[in-house]
């Protein structure tokens, strides 16, 4: 039987970008792109995040050239009340209560808050992590691709669990063409779904029972 979890969607900042960058046929006009995160309460594993949105670390990591180009091209807004840590605190959850962060992919608007969660382990697909590591020291290339390796905690590698090593499982028929997922916790509660394309190894998250109904989080896919 599937384990039921509680899922909440939070917004941790947003950026302004042209609508046509994300929407085929979209206008050549600036629109808001929210940085969304999933806050999950698992009955055995406690508090889990799917992505972190923007955080103060983003502004530190983009102070100098070439990284500052990212900030100029895609202006980021993060009011204090919208910082993920502040929102968690308002819900009575400390940053150190977060046990896992499942990372959809390593673009800066999804991982900027990782350094805030010092007790968390990280779950991601190997292809995406390797791509980010391959960009270390290549600051221009990384920046132009929306990657800021400085956002990773120094001990990231030691805290990372590769989703690739989780047991494969069948997905329900309505999710076609997706047929197989990765049972991230071995209890059918949270299923990783590889969604390559937007990044080398983007990881979607299928939640079979989120308060009694299924949810499929696809990040930027
Ligand atoms: Zn992205």
Keywords:
5-stranded antiparallel β-sheet; binds zinc ion; globular; alpha+beta; 7-stranded mixed β-sheet; 221 residues; single chain; 32% strand; 12 strands; 19% helix
Walk me through this protein's architecture.
This protein has 221 residues and is α+β, with helices and mostly antiparallel strands. The chain has one domain (6-217): Metallo-beta-lactamase, Chain A, CATH 3.60.15. The protein is built from 7 helices and 12 strands. It has helices at 56-61, 68-73, 84-90, 108-111, 126-134, 139-144, 156-159; strands at residues 6-18, 30-42, 46-50, 76-77, 98-102, 121-124, 160-162, 167-170, 180-183, 191-194, 203-210, 213-217. Strands 4-1-2-3-5-6-7 form a 7-stranded mixed sheet. The radius of gyration is 17 Å and the shape is globular. The relative contact order is 0.17. The mean pLDDT is 95. Zinc ion (ZN) binds next to loops.
Structure summary:
This protein has 221 residues and is of the alpha+beta class. Helices cover 19% and strands 32% of the residues. It has one domain: 4-Layer Sandwich (Metallo-beta-lactamase, Chain A), CATH 3.60.15.10.
Intertermini distance: 29 Å
Biggest sheet statistics: 7 strands, mixed
| CATH level 1 name | Alpha Beta
Query: Order of strands in the sheet with the most strands?
Result: 4-1-2-3-5-6-7
Number of helices: 7
Please trace the helix and strand order, writing H or E for each element.
Answer: EEEHHEHEHEHHHEEEEEE
Label the overall shape.
globular
Give Rg in angstroms. 17 Å
| CATH structural architecture | 4-Layer Sandwich
Total discrete domains:
1
Mean pLDDT score, rounded? 95
What structural class do the secondary elements suggest? alpha+beta
């Amino acid at each position: 039987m599937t384990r039921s979890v509680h899922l909440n969607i939070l917004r941790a900042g947003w950026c302004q970008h042209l609508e046509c960058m994300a929407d085929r046929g979209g206008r050549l006009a600036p629109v808001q792109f929210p940085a969304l995160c999933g806050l999950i309460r698992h009955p055995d594993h406690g508090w889990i995040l799917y992505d972190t949105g923007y955080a103060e670390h983003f502004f530190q990591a983009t102070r100098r050239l070439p990284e500052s180009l990212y900030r100029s091209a895609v202006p980021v807004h993060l009011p204090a009340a919208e910082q993920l840590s502040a929102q968690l605190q308002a819900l009575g959850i400390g940053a150190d209560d977060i046990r896992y962060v499942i990372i959809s992919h390593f673009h800066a608007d999804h991982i900027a808050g990782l350094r805030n969660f010092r007790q968390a382990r990280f779950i991601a697909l190997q292809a995406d992590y390797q791509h980010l590591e391959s960009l270390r020291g290549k600051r221009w290339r990384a920046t132009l691709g929306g990657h800021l390796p400085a956002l990773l905690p120094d001990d990231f590698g030691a805290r990372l669990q590769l989703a690739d090593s989780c047991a494969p499982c069948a997905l329900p028929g309505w999710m076609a063409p997706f047929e197989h997922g990765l049972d991230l916790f071995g209890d059918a509660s949270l299923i990783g779904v590889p969604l390559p394309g937007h990044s080398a190894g983007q990881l979607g998250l299928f939640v079979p029972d989120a308060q009694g109904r299924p949810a499929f989080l696809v990040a930027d896919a």
